[in-house]
Amino acid sequence: MAAARADLTRLLFAGPDHDRTHGTWRRLVGGPAFTYRPGLSPAERAALSYDRLRLLNDALTAEDPAAPARFAADPHRLAALHEWIGPVDGGLTTLASIHYNLFLGSLVDHDRGDDHDRGEDHRGDDRDREDGHGPAAAGKAGTRDLSPFTAMRRIGTFLCTELEHGNDVAAMETVAVLDREHGCFDLHTPTPGAAKFMPNTSLTGGPKTAVVAARLFIDGEDQGIFLFLTPLSDEHGHLPGITVRRLPERTGTPVDHCLTSFDHVRLPREALLQGEHGRLTPDGSLTSALGNRRKRFLRSIGRVTMGKLCMSAGTLGMARAALTIAVRHAHSRRIAGPRAGERLPVAAHRSHHGRLLDALATAYAMTFLHRTVVARFAAQPDTGSRNRVEQEEREEIERLAAVAKGWITWQARDVAIECRERCGAQGLFPANGISDLPANIEGGITAEGDNLVIWVKAASEMVFGHRVPLPPARTAPGDVDDPAFLRDLLLHAESIWQKRARTALREGPSGDPTGRWNATSTPALEMVEAHACRTAADAFLAAADRATDPTARTLLRALCRIFLLRRLREHTGDLLAEGLLTPDQVRALPRALDTATAEAAPHLPTLAEAFDLPPDLLATIPLASGAGITRTLEEQP
Asked: 508-550: per-residue pLDDT in tens?
C-alpha cells in the first residue's frame, strides 16, 4: 500500500513546488519547538505563539531577508503555512494570518503613499524610525521600508472591525481627517462603540504597528474607508494617544485580543495606503479610479479574501490532524470480541469505522476544494484595471472563497468533534492533540467574515447571478454506485433550491424588502450548501481521475461515493418528486453507502496516513503513538 499512500499524498498536496510550498512548514512543525507544552498559563501560551511566529519568520528570512514580503504575495505558500501550523497552535495560526496576510499583504498590495509632502510627524524624526514610514526602498510596496516587519523587529496587526460594527464594518466610525495646515492625518475614535474590537494590540510579542481602517475626510467630505499605517507601541509601551485594553480570555488557544482607541493621533501623509482606488495629490485632493465609496472600501480590504483561504486552510489542517490521531487510536485501542478471550481493535466495528470514513471522505473533499479555490485565486491577474470579463471572474472567485470558507470551517468543526468523541475520554486531554481543536476552529468560523453572513451575501448574489450547469438528460436510469451519477444528482438539488429561491423572491411581499428576503433566504442558503458540496465533489472526482496508482484511484472513488451518498440523503425526497430518482434507486442508496464503506474500511489507516503529518510530531502525542494519557505521567520528573 506504500505506492497508494504516496499517490494519495501527492494528490492531496498537489500544487506548485511541493517542497517549498508545504515541506518547509511540515519540517518546522515536526520540531521540538512546536510540541505541546503542558502547564502554561494563558499569558504564557499567548507569548509562546509570538515566539513561534518568529521561528516561522526565521525560516523565511533564511531564504532571503526580503522573503516575507514575497511570501505574503504567494497564495499557495501562505495558505499552506496555515494548514501545517493550525493543528499545533491555534494562536499562532491567528497571529500568522494577521501579520503576513492582513498586515504585510496590505502593504505589499498598495502603493507606498505620497512622496511629495512627507508632512509633519509628531513622534520625532522619521529618518531613523522603525515604524515603516522610513525612506528605504522595499519591493512592490514602492519606497516604503518593510524591513522592520519582514525582519519582525515589529509585529504587524490589522484593525478593521469595531465594537459596534462587525459584519456591518462598512458603517465604521473611526475617522482620519486630512489636516492641510500640518500636512498630516488626524486619526480618531469618535465614540466608545468605534473602538477597534479584538486586534492583538497588547505589548505581548514586542513593538507593534497596525494597518488601521478609517473613514477618510477631506475638507469635511467623507471619501470612504482607507487603510493607514499606524505605529502602536515601542519598547517603552503604547504610544501617546493610543489606548489599549485587554479583553477577557476567550475559548481556544489564547491570543492577546484587545479593545483599541485613538485620541487624535497624528499620522504623516505617507501613512495612507494608496492605489488605484484612491491617491492623494500634492494639493490634497483625492483621485480614484473607482466611482463610489463602497468599491474603495472593498478594494482597501481586499486581503480579507485571502484571509478566508487562510482560515479555511488552518481549520482544514486541524481536521486532518484530528482524523490522523483518531484513526490511529481506533486501530490501537482493543476491546473484547465476540469470542472468549478475543480482543479486537475498535476500528473493526462499522459503528466506529463508518463514522471515521464519513469524516475522512469529508476531509478529502475539503482539501480538494481548497486546492481548487486557491489555484483559481492565485491565477488571477495582478490588481489593477480589469476588463468586464476579468472583473466578473474575480467576483466569482471571491464568492467561491467565501462559500468554501463557510463550508470547510463548518465541516472541520464537525470532523474534530466526531474525532474527539471516537477517542472517548482520552480525547478530552489537550496533550492528546484533539480537545483544543473544536474551540480553535470556532475562531476560523467567525474570522474574516462570520460564516452565515458571508453565505447570506453569496446567496443573494447567486439567486439570479449564478447559472447551475445542469447535465444532459439521461436516456437510461443512473447507477447509484456511479459517483458521476451521484454528482449529477447533487447538481440537480442545487438547481431545485435555486428555483425555489427565485420563486420566493418574485412572490415575496411587495414594498417589504426584508420580508421578501426572509422568504427567500432559507431556500437560497440551501442552494449555497448544495453548491459547496457539488463544487467539492467536482474537485474530488477530478483528483481521482489524476491518480496514477490503481489502488489509490479505487480508494478515492469509493471515498467520493461515501461523500456524495451522505450529502444526497437530505435531497432524496426532492429528487424523487422531480423524477430524477426512482423509488428503487432511493431504496438502494443505503446499500450503496454500505458497499462503499466496506470497500474503503480495510484501508482506513492508509487514507489517514496520506495526510502526511510529521512522524516526530505524532510521536509526541500519546494517543497517536499507541499510548494513552498515562504516558505523560511516566514522562514527568
From this structure: 998 999 999 999 999 999 999 999 999 999 999 999 999 999 9
DSSP H helices, 67-196, are 67-72, 75-85, 90-96, 105-109, 147-150
| DSSP H helices in 466-512 | 483-507
Cα angle for residues 517, 518, 522 (degrees, 5° grid)? 100
Q: Which residue has the cell 521561528?
A: 55
| C-alpha cell at position 499 | 428555483
Residues 56-91 pLDDT 10s:
999 999 999 999 999 999 999 999 999 999 999 999
CA 56 to chain centre: 18
- Strands 334-336, 343-345: pairing is antiparallel
Question: Can you name the residues that pair with 238 across neighbouring β-strands?
Answer: 233
Which pairing describes strands 208-218 and 155-159: parallel, antiparallel, or unpaired?
parallel
Summarize the confidence of residues 409-437 as an average pLDDT: 96
Q: Measured between alpha carbons, how far is 119 from 135 in angstroms, rounded to an integer?
A: 13
Q: How far is CA 301 from CA 102, 103, 208, 313, in A?
A: 8, 10, 20, 20
Question: Do the Cβ atoms of 228 and 176 come closer than 8 Å?
Answer: yes
- Under the banding of pLDDT at 50, 70 and 90, the label for residue 125 is very low
Q: Are strands 221-231 and 233-234 parallel, antiparallel or unpaired?
A: unpaired
Of the CA atoms within 13 Å of residue 578, those in its CB half-sphere come to: 15
Q: Is 337 helix (H, G, I), strand (E, B) or coil?
A: coil
Q: Which residue has the cell 498515562?
A: 630
Cβ atoms within 10 A of the Cβ of 387, count?
9
What is the rounded distance in angstroms from the CA atom of residue 608 to the CA atom of residue 604?
Answer: 6
Residue 221 three-state SS: strand
Q: Tell me the DSSP string of 188-220.
A: E--SGGGSEES---SSTTS-EEEEEEEEEEETT
φ and ψ at residue 582, rounded to 5 degrees:
-95, 160
Name the amino acid, one letter, at 511: G
C-alpha cell at 302: 481586499
Cell of 135: 525612506
| DSSP label at residue 249 | P
SS3 379: coil
How much is the mean pLDDT over the chain? 92
Of 275-279, 517-521, 569-573, 591-595, the poorest mean pLDDT is in 275-279
> Cα–Cα distance between 341 and 546 in angstroms, integer?
46
CA dist., res. 157 & res. 202, Å (int):
10
Tell whether the torsion through CA atoms of 94, 97, 102 and 103 is positive or negative: positive
Residue 492, judged by CB atoms within 10 A of its CB (0-12, 13-18, 19+), counts as buried
**DSSP-based three-state secondary structure for 151:** coil
CA-angle at 52, arms to 51 and 58, nearest 5°: 95
The answer to whether residues 400 and 457 touch, using CB atoms and an 8 Å cutoff, is no
DSSP state of 162: B
Least confident of 309-323, 372-386, 409-423, 570-584: 372-386
555, 600 contact by CB (below 8 A): yes
For residues 436 and 245, the answer to whether their CB atoms sit within 8 Å is no
Which residues have CB under 8 Å from 79's CB, separation 6+? 309, 310, 312, 313, 370, 374
